[in-house]
Amino acid sequence: MRRPWRSRLAAAALAVVAVGGLAACGSGQSGPPVLTWYTNPDSGGQAEIAKRCTEVANGRYSIAVSVLPREAAGQREQLVRRLAANDSSIDIMSLDPPFIAELSEAKLLAPVPPELAARATEGIVESAVKGASWRGQVVTVPFWANTQLLWYRKSMVEGTGLDMSKPVTWDQLIQAAEAKGKQIAAQGARAESLTVWFNALISSAGGAVITNPSPDDPAGVQLGLNDPPAVAAGEVMQKLATSSAAGPTFSTEDEDAGATAFESGDAMFMVNWPFVWPRATSAAEEGTLDKSVPQDYGAALYPQVEPNLPSAPPYGGINLGVGAFSAHTDLAFEATECITSAENQKYYFVENGNPAALESVYTDPEVIEAFPMAPIILQSLNQAAPRPQTAYYSEVSGSIQREYHPPSGVDPQGTAAATAVLIQEVLAKKELL
Fold first, then answer.
1. pTM for the whole structure
2. Are residues 325 and 369 in the same domain?
């Protein structure tokens, strides 16, 4: 019997021409193999690492970089279409963790050799190991890991009674921001960032969007959306969005908009990824932001939903997958070890602002100089929770975005129940997103 996710991916292959013709399979090539690494857009760090690893290969192979679309959904679409058409030009892929289960389940990833899996996960933060795995097996190689912190303006927190060296709750933040007439920058836009926020909230409340991924049968997927943690998550979203701590454009606010509100001083708190730190320091160096602003930045662990439960911050980053149809899988896996070396993870952290998956990097003096909050990032990564791991992630995330937007319209219990119904109907092909 044909599996539903495989049928879907095979159908997508019919549209492969829309994303460009397939590369040649390698016939007629002379000289060392050229490995193509499909990367997410960045500030040039992956291209530099590809150059470094080409030099280290000493003529055995070279690595060419092909940049994917900016949005994660666009990256997934292009890779799925090409892989479903058995594209042999895809050697290495920079993969957003939520899409790994889908590609693995559809047999579009080359199996990671057991000895490499052991080496690739040694000393790696726990959340990155979880995010690189599916069905209890390591199916991708952890490259860099990401997480959201609670950022605060030190000068504005003074007088609120909050001790930012200790865990704080969303309720405490909302109360403090309202008292100061300031905002809390969070991601209220209808986008993947909304799913990231909701998943962090339900995980922090002790629950999960999916309690049983049921990889073989979409009808068997079990949801935790009718459980108390889902209601608690919705309460936080609705409370913030309807409070004076939400900015006037909260329902369209993404990570960049939040960073801007924080830089301007409109927001005294912000949940966001570590990129906001080099963004602020670079702007201060260039003279487009007052130098006193980044000096006023403080960083703490992601806020708690319940006072007695540790928060489960968002987990993100990039893992490396090897295409199932690559003509050079052995060399591609060899290249992933070079790409993810401690030296290259440190470089990518310091120069591109993308945190390492390898714990030992966080004690490097150059890393701490560039990111004084590196110990908090590491602690956050070890508490972080991946987004729902399922072969049907796109359907799950799309349903959450539809029902939980705008956050001001969330009915904690009703929205959770409606989302559960929508996900089930979408998986049963009774409803379209």
1. 0.91
2. yes
